[in-house]
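hi! just following up on the protien thing from before. the input was this:
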Amino acid sequence: MDSVTVARSMRGSIGMLAMDWLMAESTRTTAEERGLPAGLAAYAVGRLGVLGDCPVDNVVGAACFWEPDFMRGLVIEGRSAATPHDGAAIYAAICQEWGEQKLFAFGGTERLGELCERVVAHASPLGAPLFVGWRDQHIPVEEGPARTFQLCQVMRELRFSRHTIAVLASGMSPLDAILSGPAGEWNAEFFGWPKPYPDEEYVASLAEQRTEIEAHTDRLHAADFEVLTDDERAELRDLAKAARAHATERT
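and the predicted 3d structure came back as:
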């Protein structure tokens, strides 16, 4: 399997696998129980806390798709309850626990983790601050679901970083990128963008550009898989799809 093909597959497998835990209500509930603020402020100091104690606008820039003032408010609220270091550590622990639950008894756990680790170690850090932040979080040494799932989260941030570059290079605004995506206006509202939004005709006109952005993302991400052989890339594709299916069955 070539690198572009496996890169393309990551969006629907590892990308969605990791998105499930990031957006889960149980993740925010657990974070609150461990000292983080309620709601999305926990996300802002948890997932994004891996950037460290940097200026707030560094976080806004790395998050990319959130309405800037909305995200600034979340970061400030999150940091009022916990340092970025502590928030990131709490989120990493929740990530590991989610993996223990969702990948329990998944037969390909160790091999998936091994292949992901090789990609992560090989990938360029350029233009990928959230990938670097998650890559450098403490990852369990012992092979198993917790380690593998956290590596999947690192992989998710890797593709996300490549995608932000593709969107910005295209000249499309973050809001237009959201509106032209699968969740459309629901996602735009969730990400803090105020209504009214452009009409359906305008959004429909973005379809061709959006398709090219996805293809550009795949091309950028493909370089990350050059460390694997053709057979290993196919194996990673299959294991990632199977892991997502297994995790979904355990929901």
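The first helix runs from residue 3 to 10.
The chain is about 70% helix and 0% strand.
cheers
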